[in-house]
């Protein structure tokens, strides 16, 4: 047991050191949602009317609506970034060091997941702080309540990245992940517009959004930011996270021979 | 206690047979050289020995632990140097070793003293605070060898560890690992395609097209001819 936690600590620390070294990654991760918040949302404010729906108790501006979705965006992109670095590690050979450690492979993958989620949470809080500096503030309790929501959503999206990394054979294939996973997942969710708004243009699109796990991750974060608990969103996120993690464990199973092409 | 035992091991990539019914034993404290040309199946064998992937046919025992039935105990007994470098180039030598120590459940003072001892043994103590990126190829390999000694393994697996090194570094590292085997009783499996890395007293395994062609004392197998000529003669034929 002690061994498992020493390893977890070392993997989280290593990911943090790597993150600190890559300041460009931190800035890029922050600039992306800030552009959406300060440029895109400002432009759409007039075009998009929002009715009062939980967890909101009054009319809100579009900038306020979009904040949870942008937190989700940070987690989504960071999950994929982590997946990219796993593929890179695999190509460069350092993944071998991790996978030959005398611990269950699922635990080693879980350690990587926790490490990347910790970085995601740090980025999401930095984004919330910058948004607050621009006057887009949440209730104080929300800043505390959102921590577990960010953790659960981050684990789910990180597990998705982990599962994808076991399927991506080469670094070059990563562009496909952007086109076929990240963009549809982000745009077909409640990150940018509520479900009822989507239903006005297409019920089919609304239905797709409703089953997208990213929608539920965003809603879980949205409610938590207002100190409220959204049970169904938590359920969806946890179930999706468990499925993605099991897929990742299967993908990295030594009997499946993921690494054999690189040997 | 056995060193390393491989029994009837076979592995295929699709229809291509990479290893075909390979069996051998390396006794405790012995230095075994796995000699084979490129594509002989050495790296596949190393991937199976380190459980990067598993074989459906055959078995592997490391220091008395069956790798399939008890992978954690078996993996804890091996130290590996892969053909591909696996250092984090942006970390210092010491941090690279600390990370590895943690993967084996070592931390704090115990990890610190073991890291110091391993670096001292490989003559790398003065470079502990240098970034891996700033080391030359020979020193990077020494760092990797020091790293694989931290958890006091019984079996060392080195997959062509001298690839890309100059002659002096190659000799220094080859001699050092021979000494480690002699002085510390470590079982060593050293994969190579270079005959000058093998001593007459080494246990020699010649692998070709996935099959073990010969096994025995290097000096006895080569007879009166040079090992290079013997090896070329053995591997000249069709599969």
Automatic annotation (TrEMBL), chain A:
It comes from Ruegeria sp. PrR005. It holds the Pfam family ABC2_membrane. This is Transport permease protein. GO terms for molecular function: ABC-type transporter activity. The keyword Manganese does not apply. One of its GO terms (cellular component) is ATP-binding cassette (ABC) transporter complex. The chain crosses the membrane at residues 26-53, 65-88, 109-134, 140-164, 176-196, 233-252. It is a multi-pass membrane protein. Keywords: Cell membrane, Membrane, Transmembrane, Transmembrane helix, Transport. Signal peptide: none annotated. It is found in: Cell inner membrane; Membrane. Belongs to the ABC-2 integral membrane protein family. Residues 24-255 form the ABC transmembrane type-2 domain. It comes from the Bacteria.
TrEMBL record, chain B:
The keyword Manganese does not apply. Residues 4-234 form the ABC transporter domain. GO terms for molecular function: ATP binding; ATP hydrolysis activity. Pfam families: ABC_tran. It comes from Ruegeria sp. PrR005. Belongs to the ABC transporter superfamily. It comes from the Bacteria. Gene3D superfamilies: P-loop containing nucleotide triphosphate hydrolases (3.40.50.300). PROSITE patterns: ABC_TRANSPORTER_2 (PS50893). Keywords: ATP-binding, Nodulation, Nucleotide-binding, Transport. InterPro entries: AAA+_ATPase, ABC_transporter-like_ATP-bd, ABC_transporter_ATP-binding, ABC_transprt_ATP-bd_su_PQQ, P-loop_NTPase. This is ATP-binding cassette domain-containing protein.
